[in-house]
């Protein structure tokens, strides 16, 4: 790896949270170049995948953490919160329970551990199943707005694989420009930047 700061890959931890079955694993798989798996099983243990994103000519190594959504494993999932810089809350548009649990549990739980020193995203998955929709898009947008999160509607199955990767790239840029990126381990952009703080992207 080059010693030039512009060429070095800086690591950023991104964690996906949400109920079992909302599609976290397939979103990560698509973003990291794998195919959609219609037979994907519920995640039985937390794991991470790596991907590289480029923000204004700077490479960043993203550690994408896929977490367990089942209620009985929530205490275990908490062990993986530490050092997360970006948290993406995922719900399934065909399950109102999945967004209710984000509102009533997951957001409160992550904020109790990390406070507000994180960049948040809200992802409405499975939009290809719009005929079974239980969560209207405007409800998802309103929820995202209420927690100051960038909103995305997507189908891990039918949308272009680059869509979720582009969304993650925008969240990384928001993190780098947010003022949360401080301390001795500060990660910086090596080029001039300006804030494009668009909280509602990628519909």
Write structural notes for this entry:
By secondary structure, the protein is of the alpha/beta class. It has five helices and six strands, in the order βαββαβαβαβα. Strand 2 and strand 3 (58-66) form a beta hairpin. Helix 1 crosses helix 5. The termini are far apart.
Tag the structure with descriptive keywords.
203 residues; alpha/beta; Rossmann fold; 6-stranded mixed β-sheet; 28% helix; disordered N terminus
SSE layout and pairing:
Elements: E1 10-17, H1 24-31, E2 47-55, E3 58-66, H2 74-77, E4 86-92, H3 96-114, E5 119-125, H4 137-146, E6 149-153, H5 162-176
Parallel strand pairs: 1-3, 1-4, 4-5, 5-6
Antiparallel strand pairs: 2-3
- Adjacency order of strands in the biggest sheet: 2-3-1-4-5-6
Write down the Rg: 16 Å
What is the CATH level 1 assignment? Alpha Beta
The overall number of domains is 1
Tell me the CATH architecture: 3-Layer(aba) Sandwich
- Amount of beta strand: 15-25%
What is the number of E strands?
6
């Amino acid at each position: 790896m080059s010693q030039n700061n512009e060429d070095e890959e800086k690591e950023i931890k991104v964690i996906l949270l949400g109920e079992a079955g909302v599609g976290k694993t397939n979103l990560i798989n698509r973003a990291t170049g794998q195919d959609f798996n219609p037979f994907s099983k519920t995640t039985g243990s937390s794991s991470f995948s790596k991907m590289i994103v480029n923000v204004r000519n700077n490479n960043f190594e993203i550690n994408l953490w896929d977490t367990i959504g089942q209620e009985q494993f929530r205490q275990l999932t908490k062990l993986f919160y530490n050092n997360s810089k970006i948290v993406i809350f995922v719900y399934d548009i065909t399950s109102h329970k999945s967004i209710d649990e984000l509102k009533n549990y997951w957001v409160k739980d992550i904020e109790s551990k990390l406070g507000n020193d994180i960049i948040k995203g809200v992802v409405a998955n499975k939009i290809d199943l719009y005929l079974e929709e239980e969560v209207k898009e405007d409800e998802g947008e309103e929820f995202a707005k209420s927690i100051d999160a960038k909103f995305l509607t997507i189908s891990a199955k039918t949308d272009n694989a680059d869509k979720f990767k582009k969304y993650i790239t925008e969240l990384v840029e928001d993190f780098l420009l947010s003022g949360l990126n401080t301390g001795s381990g500060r990660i910086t952009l090596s080029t001039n930047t300006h804030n494009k703080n668009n909280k509602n992207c990628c519909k």
